[in-house]
């Protein structure tokens, strides 16, 4: 059954709203994936707080106009799906690259990370970076280190006296 014009317009509005709410998107060519693989990919992306949507190219081009995803318009051709998030871009890249190891038919077409277009090879580089929790832990360690050293210096005098 063909979709009505109102349904198509509603889908376009939903996609445009999703694009405005996200700052990172990765276009993938999903040709060769079967339904259980796509279901597993969606599940993994959900745990990374990301969305995965198979899109019609013309609607995606229209929805991306006026958003930070406008540089992706040239890549909306063939079988296209988009994985996007408004949160951690590193988690999205890590999830996609680890899934690609088990499903080599999945390929990255293009990406926009925080409003900047990047090459598909840069997505794998992005996946090697530490995530937000690891960066927060490192920052906390760096902030805490001087205080620990000061306390150990103060404790050294009574300890050496004994």
Write the layout of secondary structure elements.
Elements: H1 5-21, E1 24-29, H2 35-47, E2 51-54, H3 57-64, E3 81-85, H4 89-102, E4 107-113, E5 116-118, H5 120-127, H6 132-161
Antiparallel strand pairs: 1-3, 1-4, 2-3, 4-5
Helix pairs in contact: 1-3, 4-5
Question: How many strands?
Answer: 5
What is the alpha-carbon Rg in Å? Answer: 22 Å
Structural class: alpha+beta
Quaternary organization: single chain
Q: How far apart lie the N and C ends?
A: 87 Å
Mean residue pLDDT: 85
The portion of residues assigned to helices is 55-70%
Task: Tell me the number of helical segments per DSSP (H or I, 4 or more residues long).
Answer: 6
List the secondary-structure elements in sequence, H or E: HEHEHEHEEHH
Uncertain segments: none
Beta-strand proportion:
15-25%
Q: Which of globular, elongated, flat, extended, rod-shaped describes the shape?
A: elongated
Largest sheet: 5 strands, antiparallel
Strand order of the largest sheet: 2-3-1-4-5
Can you walk through the features of this model?
By secondary structure, this protein is of the alpha+beta class. The chain contains six helices and five strands. A five-stranded antiparallel beta sheet has the order 2-3-1-4-5. A hairpin with a 2-residue loop joins β4 and β5. The protein is elongated.
């Amino acid at each position: 059954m063909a979709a009505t014009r109102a349904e198509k317009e509603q889908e376009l509005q939903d996609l445009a709203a999703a694009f405005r709410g996200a700052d990172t998107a990765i276009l993938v060519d999903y040709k060769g994936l079967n339904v259980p693989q796509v279901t597993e990919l969606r599940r993994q992306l959900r745990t990374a707080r990301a969305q995965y949507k198979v899109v019609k190219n013309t609607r995606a081009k229209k929805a991306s106009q006026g958003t930070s995803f406008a540089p992706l318009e040239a890549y909306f051709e063939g079988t296209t799906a988009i994985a996007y998030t408004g949160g951690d871009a590193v988690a999205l890249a890590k999830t996609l690259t680890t899934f690609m190891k088990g499903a080599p038919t999945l390929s990255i077409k293009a990406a926009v990370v925080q409003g900047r277009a990047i090459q598909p090879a840069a997505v794998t580089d992005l996946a090697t970076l530490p995530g937000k929790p690891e960066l927060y832990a490192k920052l906390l360690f760096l902030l805490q280190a001087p205080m620990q050293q000061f306390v150990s210096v103060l404790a050294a005098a009574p300890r050496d006296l004994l």
